[in-house]
Predict the structure.
Amino acid sequence: MPPSSSLPLTLLCLAVVQSFALQSTLFADSSIAMASYGTRGTTIFRSAFVRSFVGGGGRLTRRATHNNRSNTQHLFRSSSSFPLHLSSSTMRSSSSSTSSPEESANGVKEQREWSNYEKLVRKLYMTNLFNPVKLGLENMDKLHKSIGSPMDQPDISVIHIAGSNGKGSVALKTANTLRLADYKVGLFVSPHISSFRERIQINGEPLSEAQVEKYLKEIYDICEEQEIPATFFEVTTALAFRAFAQEGVEVVVLETGLGGRLDATNVIKHPALSIITSIGLEHTRILGDTVELIALEKGGIIKEGRPVLVGNNVPFETLKQCAEEKKASQIYQCEDLLGPEEEQIMIEGKETFEDYDAENSKISKAGLILLQFHLAEQTFDTDKTLKIILPDTIDAGAKIRPPCRFEEMDIKVDEKNARVILDVAHNPQAIDYLIAKLRANYPTANQRIVVGMSADKDLKYCTNILLDYVSDPSKLHLVEASHPRAASISSILEANPKLSDSHYEVPQADDLNKDGRDVSSVSTQVQKALKLATENNEMLVVCGSVFIMADARETLGIVEPRDSAVIAEVAGAGMRNSQ
């Protein structure tokens, strides 16, 4: 063979060596045995996992800074990075795969070993790369039975909640009220803001890392022993069920992930109550392209002999027929339990909006009234003492709001307080509602807005709504999250060139940063916007994708559990938006 013809073969060999070295780096200490997945797992890894992370963090990046009156270019390295180049030292030693760089007091990067929690949750986030998501309850049925079907035990009452909007808020309000009434209550919701552990809470507290380690390992052992190819959401749901049963909760408030009929949570057979909060056009390729079809999917959580409560914003006749076909004991609307509304609370904007928080509180209150009938029956069957949920307790419990849902706070900057609002408004309807609520609650305030979006949203339409509101593009700060589904600054600017005079920093793509990502933009722009808002007596609004909120909250000084960069760098791998 001529010397020149050996070059392609040499390059191919190098590529194969790098591919297997990268797999070893990723999986050696994440407790993932490639052998258990066979060649199929390897194939999925190469096609999906590498595609997800090529262009991610961990590269020297050159950024051009806009709207700070400086064209200075500078270099930075993300501490949450994952090396895409594989040095000989990386290939010789596996220690690099189980440790991450941390900056010591003298500014020197030092390696630390990953905790068992980090290894397990990293493995969980990468599950969908090997077990592709498919609709159906077969996996979850096997998992639930394998852990003793705890959600069907008579000593645990389950409230199952579905809906296009409001289900997480109704779940939180309901769980909070039960906690105030001295019930031990488990809450399962998604997605999370800062830590995976937020998804599974007992009496308002996220599971501890030790609890996640214990119960997640048990779920993985079952999956491996029984060869159940469970997905991220199925494993997470089983983790919640296992934790709630082992920790002795009395009531579980369960939010569906996507839809209802085929959602992993829908393996429960005898919920105390099913709630459907609202129906809107969402995930139409999966759930159907009309509100009636989507209602039937959500109505899949209705069970024989059990009551169902529905909110105002649903096709009632469709759900009524569904309830009759499924032989539900009764279908209720809020006014059946709370009496007729004195006056609906509305928010005026370009459109007139019902106050969503008021509607969610109403659904929660009505649901708690229904739940008490079930709890009363349960006490007769189990000799438990009935804990009455008083009206004042219901009112107090319903006042809580989920984080980043028009969350208001004051942040002190140089002895002055700046009003800050965090809201995960991320689509046109939600952004219109956010602006209407800002106008209603703060009619004379000037706003400065930090916004980051998911890549699958209508970037031009959403940002035009914000531009119309603030008038001056220099009042907008554009950011991108470090999440694989986040929209880049470049894509936002390409979608809406009118934003060129906004505040942003665009990383310059080069050999080390081929897609030009900036994982520090949220922190940078929130700091900058907060300073300008304080100086100009403005209110700061941080809105858009849930993916930007953890960085924003940390930058604002909010102290709460947050997963490390070791976990964050793989968060979202192969997952749907609902997860």
Summary: The longest helix spans residues 356-382.
